[in-house]
Every structure is written in structure tokens, then in C-alpha cells.
Amino acid sequence: MSTAKTNEILLQADKLTRRFGGLVANRDVSVTIERGMIHVLLGPNGAGKSTCINMLSGDLPPSEGTIRFMGNDITGLTAAQRSKVGIGRSYQRTNIFPQFTVLENVRLAAQSRNQQPWRIFSKAMAQQWALDKARACIAEAGLDKRTDWVAGVLSHGEQRQLEIAMVLATDAQVLLLDEPLAGMGSEESAKMVDLLKRLRATRGILLVEHDMDAVFAVADVITVMVNGEMLECGPPAQIKASVAVQQAYLGTEDSLHV
Amino acid sequence: MNPQASLILKLAAFVALACVPLTGESFYVEMIAKMLVMAIFAMSLDLLVGFTGLVSLGHAAYFGIAAYAAALLSPKYEAANLWVVFPAAVGLSALAAFVIGLFVLRTKGIYFIMVTLAFAQMAYFVFHDTPVGGGSDGIYLNVKPSAAIGGWEPFDLSNADHQYYFILAILLLVYLFLWRVLQSPFGRVLVGIKSNEHRMQSMGYFTFRYKLGAFTLAGALGGVAGFLYAVLFGFVTPELLSWHESGNVLLMVILGGMGNLVGAVVGAFAFEGMRGVFEGWTSHWQLLMGGVIVAVVLFLPGGLSSLPGRLRRALQGDEAK
Lengths: 258, 321
Fold this sequence. Notes:
The structure holds two protein chains of two kinds. Chain A is globular, with a radius of gyration of 19 Å. Helices cover 34% and strands 24% of the residues of chain A. The longest helix of chain A has 15 residues, at 186-200. Chain A is of the alpha/beta class. Chain A starts with 8 loop residues before the first strand and ends in an 8-residue tail after the last helix. Chain B has helices at residues 3-19, 26-52, 60-73, 82-104, 109-129, 160-183, 185-202, 207-233, 243-256, 261-281, 285-299, 307-320, and strands spanning 139-140, 235-236. In chain B, helix 2 (26-52) packs antiparallel against helix 8 (207-233), helix 2 (26-52) packs across helix 10 and helix 4 packs antiparallel against helix 8. Chain B is globular and about 60 Å long.
């Protein structure tokens, strides 16, 4: 599988530590995201997965450690600045503009790449490039039948697809996706897994996910976290075979459903 | 409401407003002129409250600063040049809003409300407790500014009708300006910030800058209203900057329907109109006003401007039966 080839390293986090007062939410967590690969963060609740993704996206500054994007140190950048360099994220709880149409949600994301805030007299809807980009990303996320719908009335799964479309419209090279399958039915899940596989070809993806079937269906690399620390990192086969992982998280062989 | 009916209604309202001076009743001309000024003020606040999601409880500061600037920048017994003093007054309000915005926009929610109030109270006490603007007695604008350009005078603000049409024209310009701004990429970002600021940031928007832009713009337009107020009444007091005024203009926006420019105008007219009526009945007019506002908030969440649409839907519902 993809473990043999060497890919372009997009995002490299080195020994990230995050403390909240006396609590260490992440200790020495290192994550590498390569183009063409899906890296899954796995772990029980409270393992520190969300803290980790928040540090990568810039929502939370790390207490220690460095983050590099395509070789440049981005540890000190804010979330907005990281979005500008090419890191996009979706959230665990759906985070869209529910009153806007699907098109406007994604158009706003596209507009962020060329903001021109001083042009207060030009019409936003006359910026054809942003509209074209938005439509293309909506299609890529498989939502083209819902383009003119108000986002708030979409099904849960469609709203997750919309979030992906918004991230794509920001030209993100690295996608940080926090539980994109949460709360989805099996049919919606399967669609999303297909979408993730398609997106992987040209981008690097970090996935936080609980759904075991989906994890082993898409993961190229899995990092298992327990109590804020990395327990094991490697290809799915290695994780499945790992005794430490089984003891700490997966339980018995039966509960793997494989 | 469909766009055509809405446009016809707006045009009809504008024509009606343009006919007010034809009645020759100077009392009503001045009363409606004040409503027009408050409507401009309410629209400026709606840019913050209704479109950007920033609830400011200190918007009277920018109104008052421009009003004082109008009085202080005018010579005592001569007419100032309108084309100098008007932009200067508005510019001072914009500058004040920019500087205050740098501080208050670092806060959110209830803190934002309190900090905007605090800055406005500071401005209030500057004029109330120092001799800059005549202290608590206020200051007169004895001679209205002259609109003369070279030797040509397009209109004369000391003529009540000319003054009325000047204010009406400014109202129309401010409305068209904001309407256009809200369709721009800048305006769409403001509405996005109101809906979900965190998401805007994670998409790469430096939302602070946009909010500062909106705050400055709203302060400038509030200054436009304040300047016109000073010209209209020729008298400026610290009460113009008081938190009562900030509260009143917020109530106008809520009354008319937030996030709707016409709503702000309707709210200003309704508020001033009701105040006039209730003041004639009782000195406790605020009690009645409070009751009306509670009723509107409870039964008309979209404000008074949502009334035509509701009526139409109700009527259509009847027809369908």
C-alpha cells in the first residue's frame, strides 16, 4: 500500500505539548501529514485528539513544540493566517452559516482567497471567479443538487459535505477533519468515505474519527492516542496487530469488526 | 414581499415624505425632519447590530461628537461653509469610532455592550463636565452653515423647506450607500461575521479588521445624523451623547426589525411618532413606549417592517381556504 512510497510532507508537528493549568492534554505529540495520504487520529474520549487538531489549526496555541507547513514554521500563526497558507479544517460539531444558501456558504469561503475588503461598492455576486470556484467545490463534495438550498435545512450528512466543500473552496492543501462521519447513517458514511478517498489524491488529510470500519477503510497511517500521549503510530495492519493498542483501546479482537 | 411590491411601497413612502413641506405646516415639517435624522442614525446603528451582530450601547457618542463639531467649528455669528464643516464633523465621528473601535472590538457579547457604553459615557462627561462645549448647558449653533460654492448658492439651510429636502436627500444617499455596501464582498463578510464569526476566522478572514471597518463606517454615518440634528435645532447639549439616546436608537432598530435598512427607518418614525403622541397624553410616556416595545418583541419578532409580509401571508392563507 501507500506506506512504501515517499510522499511530499505538507504538515509536520513536532513534540506538541499543551497544558491547561496542571492538566497535560497533549504531551510530546508528533504528527506528519503527507500529500496523498490520510492520517487518522484514533483514541478514546479524552485522549487529546481535539486538543491536537486545535493546535494544528491554530485554534489553540501549543505550550511547547513546533508546527511546520511545507518547511515553514507556522507555530505562531493564528487560525486565519493558517487558513491563508493552506490549512483548512472542519469541526466536530457542524459549523456552517445556517441562514445562507449552500452557494453563499461556499462562495464566502472562496472569497476569502482574494478578499479586497476596500471594494465596498462592487457587487459580491459579480465576482464570477468566486462563484465558479464555489460551484466547482460544491460539485466536488457531491452537493450540486443542493446548491440553492438554505444550508440550515440540509440533512446532517449533507451539512458535513457542505463543510468539506467550504474547506475545499479555501484551496486547502491540508484538510483537518474532526469527525466528519459523526452522526451519519451508513449510506451517508459510505459516500463520505468515497469522497475522502477522492480528496486524498491531491491533498493531505488528517482525520479524527471513531467509526472503526471507516477508519480502517481509508487510513494510510493511524496514530493512536491515550491520555494525551501517542501510544502507537503506523499503518493500519501494524495498529491492528499491536498488543498495546488492543489493551489500551480496542479491547478484544472481536470488537474490531474485522 | 415580492421585490416589485416592496419597491413600489418604498417609492410611495419616499414621495409622501417629499410632499410633507407642501402642507406648509412648519411644525410638522420640523417634526418629520427630526424623524428623518433619527432614521439615518438608526440605519447607521443597524449596520452594526443588524448586519454585523455587534450590539453597541454607545452609538450616541458618534452622533453627539459630530453635533458638537458642527457647533464648535462654526464661527459664532457667521455661517460656516457646509462643505467644510459637514465632512469635518463626520470625519471626527469616524475618527472617534475608529479609535474606540480599536479597544472595544477586542471584547465580545455582554462585554462589548458594556465597553461601548463606558466609552460613550466618557464622551458624555467630557462635554458635560468640561467647558469645551459649554458644559451641561450645551452650546448654540447660531447661524446655519452656508451651502454656497463660490458665488453660487444651490440651497439655503435657513429656509426650513430647503433644509428638509437636504435632510431627505441625505437619508436617501445613506440608504443607497448602505444598500450597496451590503451587497459588496465587504458587506457579505459582515453578515458572515454576524452568523458565525469563528467560522469566518477559520476560513482566513481577519474579522477584527472588518468589524473595525464596520464600526468606523457606522460611527461616520451616526455623525452624519448628529451633524444634521445640530443644524436642524441649532442647539447641542451633552444629553445627545447620553446612554438614553444610545438606548433609544437601539430600540428604534429593534422596533423596526434588525438587519433591515427600511426597518431602521420605520422604527425611527414609529418611535418618534409614538413618543410625540404619548408625551401628549402623559408625562410617563416611557411606560407606554416600553409596553409597545415589549409587545412588538413578543408578537412581531421581525419588527414592524415584517408587518406587510405577515399581512400578505395571512390574507393569502385566507384565500387558500
